[in-house]
Amino acid sequence: MSNPSREQWGSRSGFLFAAIGSAIGLGNIWRFPAVAYENGGGAFLLPYLIALLTAGIPLLVLEYSIGHKFRKSPPAAFRGLAKPAQAIGWWQVAICFVIAAYYAVIIAWALRYIGFSLGEQWGDDADAFFFGDFLQAAEAPGTVSSYVGGVLWPLIAVWVVVLAILALGIRNGVEKANKLFIPLLVVFFVVLVGRALTLDGAWTGLDALFTPDWSVLGNGGVWVAAYGQIFFSLSIGFGIMITYASYLRQRSDLTGSALVAGFANSSFELLAGIGVFATLGFMATAQGVAVNEVTAAGIGLAFVAFPTVISEMPLGGLFGVLFFASLVVAGLTSLISIVQVVVSAVRDRTGIGRLPAVLGVGGAIALVSVLVFPTDGGVYLLDTADHFINQYGIVLAGLVVVVVVGWVLRRLPSLQRHANETSAVPLGRWWLVCLGAVTPLVLGWMMVDSLRAEFAQNYEDYPTGFLLWAGWGVAGAALLVGVLVSLVPWRGGPGPASAGSDTGAVTREEGKN
Amino acid sequence: MSTSAVVMMIVSIVIVWGGLVAAIVQLRRHPERPEDETPAGPGV
Questions:
Q1: Which domain holds residue B3?
Q2: Which residue ranges run through the membrane (chain A) (predicted)?
Q3: What is the CATH number of domain A12-510?
Q4: What ipTM goes with this model?
Q5: How many angstroms separate the Cα of A219 from the Cα of each of A224, A282, A386?
Q6: Residue to substitute from A260, A265, A271, interface B, most B β-carbons within 10 A
Q7: Which residues, 6 or more positions from A42, have their beta carbon under 8 angstroms from its beta carbon?
Q8: How far is A418 from A68, CA to CA, in rounded Å?
């Protein structure tokens, strides 16, 4: 039986657009191209595709199945699997809280850069402009002494938009926004790539990206990089897909949807790789250097390398507007999904209505975001929190989920049956093997690898004291909050009392769209 | 571009974008049935 009073997607395509919108984020644009380039170029395709098929899509199906089976946000859905497992759900909610707080800040930067692009306001030194003039970053991490108005106002605008969309609900807010934003993003990026490919040196860049180095396939680090890219780029491991799938109709094709979402995410990633490396090829040619000397990723790619290229190309301002608008759109659709996890969890737990939940919970995240990050110390906090919550939040939680669901609770077969009841592509034994063996092993390896790096050298050479609270502290606090909230007894009443059943009662307001 | 780079670019595009097209075609072949017409039993 479906839960008649829970919100639902208006259509299957609405869910798919939202799931794809969540998966396609900043990482697709600024992480994939560099990871592929550094890990064998064209040869990276092999481990990447194997990672997509053996971890990415199986994990998507797992999260869809958990969300769809229990029709609840992560804490209540995990509680449905086993009562103590709800701690995992709350941990994921806490992770989403942290990520949303800083992710919005990057979108705010990109929003400002749409305007900066018009006059190429970064001048001759994009690096100094970004860290100095724009962010007014302090000399060293750990201190916060002033607010940066140039970041504050766009950040407030981002939060107003996100909370307004969430307040409109799943069907009228999230679904409609994604149905508008995702086609828009594709159009922006196709135009961008088209322009990039006509630049001098574009093919030099693509040559660098796609020339295969088959010798790297024997290197375990390349395989870890492939699984890491798939894991980070698909928005899995922190409850988003569980939340989105909880609004699916009863007879939804879970495996078919996962295949579309997984391949759509990779398709966009590939398009971004082509656009980014064509552009970097132009930059390298213009500067008379090799492509490897201009390769960048993350913030450095978007806010330093790209502005530099934009200044060098004809009609660069227009290119910049399209690029930063793409970042804003890609980021917004992901941020919406991240905040929805927290909103939905609190609603399922307390039974409060949508608007109070969005304003209260979303408002709380927005407040933290606005108070902490538009400061002179904000960029260091953001960088550190991002690194640690990714490694010791998302990856660790993903590992715990597959171990607990697969090995401790042994619920993979029942979830497999659940998915197969409504899906055209049946899950076979391969799905159990991928989630029971391949994924835990790879995520475990990623964890060991990253811990080893952490203890070999301080992240970004930041001071240990700073890393202890801004990195380890934040990631540890998310875990602690998850465990503590899960220990609060569930009272009777709406929602929580019957969270374990497929027909758990929820408040009437949920049905109103 | 070198031949090997061109080949890998084409192979990547065909597999990844082709995979997306195949996944969409597969999903469209199995439209969702309206909820009220389907009995609750599994595999129906």
A1: 1-27
A2: 12-32, 44-66, 87-111, 151-168, 180-203, 223-247, 318-343, 355-374, 389-409, 430-448, 468-488
A3: 1.20.1740.10
A4: 0.89
A5: 9, 31, 27
A6: A260
A7: A209, A210, A211, A212, A213, B4, B5, B7, B8, B9, B11, B12
A8: 9
